[in-house]
Amino acid sequence: PIYSPVKTVIWIGTIGPFLKEFYTNYLWTKRARLYINKFFMVASSRTADAVIFESQFTQELFARKYNIKKNKSHVINIGFDDFFTHNKGMDYRGINTKLTTNSKFILCVSHLYPYKNIIRLLNAYKQVVETTKTSAKLIIAGSRHNSNYNNEIDKRIIDLNIQNDVVILGKVNRGYLKHLYLNAYTLVFPSPFENFAYTLVE
To answer: Residue 202: its pLDDT value, please?
Structure first.
């Protein structure tokens, strides 16, 4: 609410509407909705008694660009789930471990939004394969959201001739995700900006 007769606390859960790199890839209808969201987020933050941010980056963004007073803003980092802190009691039912158990792989955990930088990741992976002759596959775990971007990803994989080396799993459950984290040779995180990087915490 922009106005409230009682005290309010606002939690900022995304910075998508505030970053050009995020919204330029969407149709004008989606950009219009993001612009409206941005207006209400800023207006309600200014009138709220307290504003909670997930990261210092977002707090400083609002203070610098939208004059949100720091004395009423607070950073509360997202915690981690105990599920990811140890590998005891792993339940492998429903998990296809054939792909990941006996071979080296590079892991990227990311939804396939344009701003997540997947195209650049594919280009970089191609260079790594050519220069190091690695046999490590690239596994990307994350749901697809943008049909145009999906087509662009698929086309780039074909253009780079890495169809046999890149596996896009789509959305995976937590058990499979934990298995991927535990068995990956390395994790790559290509996104240039995040409100809070849940993947790195996991």
So the answer is: 83
